[in-house]
Each structure stands twice: as C-alpha cells, then as structure tokens.
Amino acid sequence: MAVSKEIEQDIVDRLATAGEVRSRRMFGGVGLYVDDAFCAIIGSDSGQLFLKADDSTRADYEREGMRIFGTPKGTMSYYAVPDRVFEDPKLLRKWVRAAVAVAKRSKPARPRKRR
User: Fold this and answer.
1) Given CA atoms 85, 89, 90, 94 in this order, what sign does their dihedral have?
2) What is the distance between the alpha carbons of residues 115 and 112, in angstroms, rounded to a whole number?
3) Per the structure, how many domains does the chain have?
4) Least buried of 27, 31, 35, 61, by fewest C-beta within 10 Å?
5) Whole-angstrom Cα distance, residue 115 to residue 105?
6) Is residue 45 part of a domain?
7) Are 3 and 48 in contact (CB under 8 A)?
8) What CATH number corresponds to the domain at position 31?
9) pTM to 2 decimals?
10) In what order do the strands lie in the sheet with 21-26?
11) pLDDT for 23-76, tens place per residue?
C-alpha cells in the first residue's frame, strides 16, 4: 500500500523545522532528504517515519524499543521514530538533525577520476 499524500505532507511539514525537505516516492514508500542528506523514510506498510541511525544514535532508538526498517532483502540502518518524539516539534527537530549528521557522515566518497 502506498503512503498517502496527506501523510507524506504532514511528515514533510514536521521535518521542515530541521531544514529544507525534499521527498521522493520509491517502492510505495517515501524517501526524505533534509538539506540534501537522505536521512528518513516513510514506510509504505505503516506510513511510519524512520530516521537514519549509526553507532552514535542507535542506542536512543533501541532504548525506546523502536523497530528497524526492513525490506524483503534485509534491514537498513533506519529506525522508527517514537511517538513521543514525533509529537514534540523540538525533540523531533533534534532527532532529525542527528539523522542528517549520520547521513552526511555515511555518504560514500566519490570515486576519483582517473587520468
């Protein structure tokens, strides 16, 4: 089931306090870029927001008992956002900015041009 335009717009509006948001529909879900960093996914099965995590932030999600984003091919380093964070604009902004930082750190290096 695809994410509704209403859910997508609500989440984009919430994330806009953290930076410039761009969305892209993919595989029934939505990929979200904040300040050109791919840092969030809206799951197609639930319409739930998932943020990118790494070793520096993963424990925050695990402490809250949040599930990791998965596809039939496996899991990805994105975790569901706790309801209490999603409903608190200041807290959500903080978590989104952390996800942006993770995305920017994990961005693969561009291959060097050969001469």
Assistant:
1) positive
2) 9
3) 1
4) 27
5) 28
6) yes
7) no
8) 3.30.1460.30
9) 0.87
10) 21-26, 29-34, 37-42, 49-52, 74-80, 68-71
11) 999 877 899 999 999 999 999 877 899 999 999 999 999 999 998 887 657 668
